[in-house]
Amino acid sequence: MGDLHTWTTVLITDITYGIQGEEAQPFIKTAIEAVKSITIATTPGAFLVDQISILKYVPEWFPGAGFKRKAREWDLLRMEMTEDPFRVTKERMVAGTATPSLASAALEQMDPTKDIAKQEELIKAASVTAHIGGTDTIVATMGGFILAMLMNPDIQTRAQHELDRVLAPGDLPTFALEPDLPYVQAIMWEVLRHQPVVPLCFPHLVTEDDVYSGYLIPKNSIIMPNIWSILHNEDDYPDPYRFNPSRFLDINGRLDPSVKDVLGPAFGFGRRACPGKELALASLWIRIASILTCYRIEPEIDEYGNLAERKAEWYPGLTMFNHPLPFKCRFIPRSKDIEVSLDMNFT
Known about the structure:
The protein is mainly alpha-helical. It folds into two domains: 2-133, no CATH class; 137-346, CATH 1.10.630.10. Helices cover 46% and strands 7% of the residues. It has a three-stranded antiparallel β-sheet. Strands 1-4 form a two-stranded antiparallel sheet. A two-stranded antiparallel ribbon has the order 2-3. Its cofactor is heme.
């Protein structure tokens, strides 16, 4: 999904550090590799030390201690991703050439009477967290959307009919039209529900004794809410393993407020809920609506001119980040305004 990674990383780099367009290119590879390392490292059971904790005391050369070498390599990636773009933002602020960003706004609001170095470290940590959090999640969700359209041509057709009714020929969707496109909205919600990007919520610490369904959860327990289970509950979402945006609509084709909200579980809980939720939703909606307006997503054609089999495969097992396995498709322009057909290889 190289194109999606580049597209998303450029956007997040601009928002976080004010580094725009081509200037963001040097930071893209590091960001993508760093996010991949986090995906692997946070997968339960990815390394033997997860089951045999005593391995954390063995030297790096010892059999079974490969995780230590990986950790050292990944720590260098983390430092590079944390330090380099932040340094560019600071240098541009000194030169008076910085564009507005999360990092520049926070630096401008530092309290000169308090520890400057400590404040900068906090801003640096918050910035890189926002950068990481907004990259792979959007890429995985967009990959899931494209794959869902490939596998469900009837749903894609219905969404495009809705767009064609609302948009004038040659126009692109805008946020002002969002209320007039309930089926497009329902597709976005179903993408988030059907294959949640974070199937297991990040660990939370229980701050006081609690009882759930008759089970005591003691204070200081570490819990990981099962988002996958919540979003596949048959009582809330009948036939939950079927990709069906219509589940969010009433008989008149309007959004049905009685259907359980997917955004709460999809974006986390409590104080640790995703702070970039609104940005993510806006970004996803405009991308989904724009792609459906401009292109028809179709299977690739083999060497004999036949359409390839429509096939959907996802990363095996319950991981921290969920994403589709590599797949191929074609983007067919829906109008003469879109100049060429795009063959895209999602790897």
